[in-house]
Amino acid sequence: MTETYPVYTGMKSAGPRFLPWLGFGLALLALPVFALTGLSLHGWAVGVVLFAANRAVAVGIDRIARGKMQVTAVGITGMGFISRGWITFGILFAYASWVSKTAGVVGAISFLVYFTVDMLVRSLAHVAGGGIKKHPQETV
């Protein structure tokens, strides 16, 4: 008897199409705030570049996970999520140590804000898009 396993088909979302890009919109809105308040524009740029790179790697990992069993896909995306965080903050630590402490700290804070907004919005959109489904045998 051959069993079939659910296959991961990629990130899903619901709602307006701009939602997955909200983190980038927030980064653009933050630029005049940084400029007017005298915060480090260098730090803003570091945060935005790391956020964009982090997001690009997330999309790449999602593509690698597609077509795999859901259990495998969860492992791939979960390890990618954790690894991206460690690598990003390793880069920020090195940047603050060797290039510019101010830009590194401001970059870390701005990255955290963009990343958190992006993660929350995409998670909520995933759930709204039917990302969490109950199996027929499960009861509420």
Low-confidence stretches: 134-140
Helical fraction: over 70%
Distance N to C terminus: 31 Å
Helix-strand pattern, N to C?
Answer: HHHH
Structural class: mainly alpha
Give the mean pLDDT: 87
Major sheet summary line: none
CA gyration radius, whole angstroms: 18 Å
Write a concise synopsis of the structure shown.
The protein has about 140 residues and is mainly α. The protein has helices spanning about 20-35, 40-65, 70-100, 100-130. Mean pLDDT is about 85; it is low at about 135-140.
Could you explain the architecture of this structure?
The protein is mainly alpha-helical. It has one domain. It is 70% helix and 0% strand. The chain has 4 helices and no strands. Helix 1 (22-37) runs antiparallel to helix 2, helix 2 packs parallel to helix 4 and helix 3 (70-98) runs antiparallel to helix 4. The radius of gyration is 18 Å and the shape is flat. The two termini are 31 Å apart.
Descriptive tags:
140 residues, mainly alpha, 0% strand
Topology of this structure?
Layout: H1 22-37, H2 41-65, H3 70-98, H4 101-128
